[in-house]
Specification:
Elements (H helix, E strand, L loop, with lengths): L14 E10 L2 E11 L4 E5 L6 H9 L6 E6 L2 E2 L10 E4 L11 H11 L4 H14 L15 H13 L5 E5 L7 H18 L2 E6 L2 H7 L2 E6 L2 E6 L1 H6 L4 H6 L4 E11 L2 E6 L3 E6 L9 E6 L5 E3 L11 E12 L3 E7 L5 E7 L13 E6 L5 E4 L1
Parallel strand pairs: 3-8, 3-9, 6-7, 7-8
Antiparallel strand pairs: 1-2, 1-4, 4-5, 9-10, 11-12, 11-14, 12-13, 14-20, 15-19, 16-17, 16-19, 17-18
Length: about 375
């Protein structure tokens, strides 16, 4: 927002978590977590089971209360308020639809509790069904709908109350792959249409990359890194994030020298490799060079046209797997480490290499990240 003087005005964030902590007995589920979510943002809490993402979501929704810390929604303290006193709605993985009510009755239930007049309820139910692209199903029972349609009804029921914040706890987990991918795109489009703040919980990395404005990667109750999808994927700051998001090669070695933002690493049996040092990382001693398989090229001619500045690893092909869009090559290096290479199948499947062949895996040092243990 810009004022009359042309200065940018900072709006109150939708959500602010300050040093939030949640303890169950001796177990620390969320540990000193701080997070700011801007109005209208689609933020995903991503991590493995037990990392604290669902507990964080439940605290925002009011289904759990923080052990300590501050929880603000639009600048108001909400840490001790029950769910019905918060401007949020939650969509759960199991949909939680009332089986004995029709679709329309399910959607208008919250409006009835809020004593919204009947004509207004009907108008808003119709509007919500249009929004999730399910017009003319209000008379059906949930059991008469497919899983994807039931998920949309659950979304409509949450949206009909016009929440300022929508919490989504792995809502697509029960859907088949094709439907899940379609719903990912529809959820993102819906976020743009309704302009509400979406906070989404998932353990699915591809889902997070597809939908999110920003991703917060969590482990053991803490946020390890937060950023836009491209930053999380291309510029991980620690080994956990690099390993959890997508597939990554980790080549172990020792730092021999540092030149600005680049480090030279001695890898046993291979020689010297170069990689980029992420912001905030001190590269000393034993480290890992992380590089994505799609950033590595397979070179059959060991003396072929690779830029002299690129890293080169010679090795033996131990496995080739055809995966449709690409083929995966597993290269075993002299020291016993492996490097995975993804080769795009843009034309006929190449037959210029086979298991047992000696090849080179080559990559630009700018595509490699130095990570500490």
């Amino acid at each position: 927002m810009i004022n009359s003087s042309g200065d940018k005005i900072r709006q109150t964030p939708s959500i602010e978590l300050r040093n939030l902590r949640k303890v169950f007995g001796d177990f620390v589920a969320v540990d000193d977590l701080s997070l700011t979510v801007e109005a209208g943002e689609f933020l995903t809490l991503l991590g493995p089971s037990g990392c604290g993402k669902t507990t964080t979501l439940r605290m925002i929704g009011g289904f759990e209360y923080p052990t300590c810390g501050t929880l603000l929604i639009h600048g108001e303290e909400m840490g001790s308020r029950p769910p019905y006193q918060r401007p949020v709605n939650t969509v759960f993985q199991n949909y939680a639809l009332f089986p004995h009510l029709t679709v329309g009755e399910n959607i208008e239930y919250g409006l009835q509790m809020a004593k919204v007049p009947r004509d207004e309820r009907k108008r808003r139910v119709d509007e919500a069904l249009e929004m999730v692209r399910l017009p003319h199903v209000e008379a059906r029972k949930p059991s008469e709908l497919s899983g994807g349609q039931q998920q949309r009804v659950a979304l409509a029921r949450a949206l009909v109350n016009r929440p300022e914040v929508l919490l989504l706890d792995e809502p697509l987990g029960a859907l088949d792959l094709k439907l899940r991918k379609a719903m990912q795109l529809e959820l993102k489009e819906l976020n743009r249409e309704v302009k509400a703040t979406f906070i989404y919980v998932t353990h699915d990395q591809e889902e997070a990359l597809t939908m999110s404005d920003r991703i917060a990667v969590m482990s053991e109750g803490r946020i390890l890194q937060i950023g836009v999808p491209s930053e999380i994927y291309e510029r991980p700051r620690n080994r956990f994030v690099a390993d959890f998001i997508g597939q990554t090669n980790f080549l172990q070695g020792e730092v021999t020298s540092i030149e600005g933002t680049m480090a030279n690493i001695a890898v046993q049996g291979i020689g010297s490799l170069r990689g980029r040092i992420p912001d905030g990382v001190t590269a000393t001693g034993r480290v890992a060079i992380a590089v994505r398989p799609e950033r590595v090229s397979l070179q059959v001619d060991l003396h072929g046209g690779t830029p002299s500045s690129w890293n080169m690893i010679s090795g033996t092909i131990r496995d080739i797997v055809y995966l449709g869009t690409h083929s995966q090559y597993v290269i075993q290096m002299p020291d016993g480490q492996h490097c995975v290479v993804h080769r795009q199948n843009t034309g006929p499947v190449p037959h210029d290499s086979a298991i047992g062949d000696t090849v080179a895996a080559v990559f630009d040092p700018e595509s490699a990240t130095i990570l500490t243990y």
